[in-house]
Amino acid sequence: MEEIRAAIAIGKKDLIILSRYRIAVVSQIFTPLYQGVIPAFLFGASFAVGGRVLGLESTVGTDNLAGFVFLGGVISGLVATSFWAMAMGLRNEMDQGTLEATWLTPTSHETLVIGRAFGGLVWFILSQIVLFAIGIAVFGLRFRPEIVYALPAVIVAIVGMIGVAYILAAIVLLIREANFFIDCTNFLFGTASGAAFPVTLLPGVFVPIAFALPTTYAMDLLRQQAIGARPVLDPTLEYVGLLATTAVIYPIGRWAFARAERTMRRRGTLAQY
């Protein structure tokens, strides 16, 4: 119970700090819009024939371009939350000189990542509400009511991404310059998850990597329910794949984080950057 209270306190602290920087708050909402959603929507719309995106329809079984793009933004946002809010948040504290003091508190060190997950997910949900409102008002965004059936898949994927965040946090704590690493892997992870296009269009060597990620299955299940997209695999198999990848990644992440903690304790490098 104490660890839960500590995690909530960490998440609340992160939200309070972020709210102090109002321009940064606006930037975090609109940057995904103008860097990802709008270019993808305009690029896809440029290939429309008679108002229908025939290429998208033949590939995924629906011509709902706005729905396809904005749902990709959901998974991209979830990935970015894991990479930047959860994992890179520890690096930011290291740079600020506060991580060493935080590390000496009685709170479990794994809770530091969980707390950032709480704060990051609250902000993720709020930003997605704003983006969806913009999509509905400006881009004609529409979803089927069955979208609610995909919520369990998204929740399981969140657990899987916390496991990924543990792995990333372990790497971030061990390397000296993490920004480039996080930036590149964030993009590659989102691409491999099918956020921008179906994973079946990836080069063959990357397809097995895509199916090793929980977000790939969550992305496909979300699009099936929300816009009636054609499933890549049987939905039952996709739920099995989602649960299996999450069950593997989460404990691996916890193990990697604990291993990094032991390494830092042995080297005495927690305060170095």
Structure description:
The chain has 273 residues and is mainly α. It has one domain. The protein contains eleven helices and no strands. Helix 2 (22-45) runs antiparallel to helix 4. It is globular and about 65 Å long.
Q: Please state the overall shape, judged from the principal axes of the Cα atoms.
A: globular
Oligomer: single chain
| Strand residue percentage | under 5%
The pLDDT mean sits at: 90
What is the total domain count?
1
Structure classification: mainly alpha
Uncertain runs are: none
What keyword list fits this structure?
75% helix; 273 residues; globular; mainly alpha; single chain; 11 helices
Provide a concise account of the structure shown.
With 273 residues, this protein is mostly helical. The protein has helices spanning 2-19, 22-45, 54-60, 65-96, 99-103, 109-138, 151-174, 179-192, 207-210, 214-227, 235-267. It has one domain.
Write the layout of secondary structure elements.
Blueprint: H1 2-19, H2 22-45, H3 54-60, H4 65-96, H5 99-103, H6 109-138, H7 151-174, H8 179-192, H9 207-210, H10 214-227, H11 235-267
Helix pairs in contact: 1-6, 2-4, 2-6, 4-6, 4-7, 4-8, 4-10, 6-7, 7-10, 7-11, 10-11
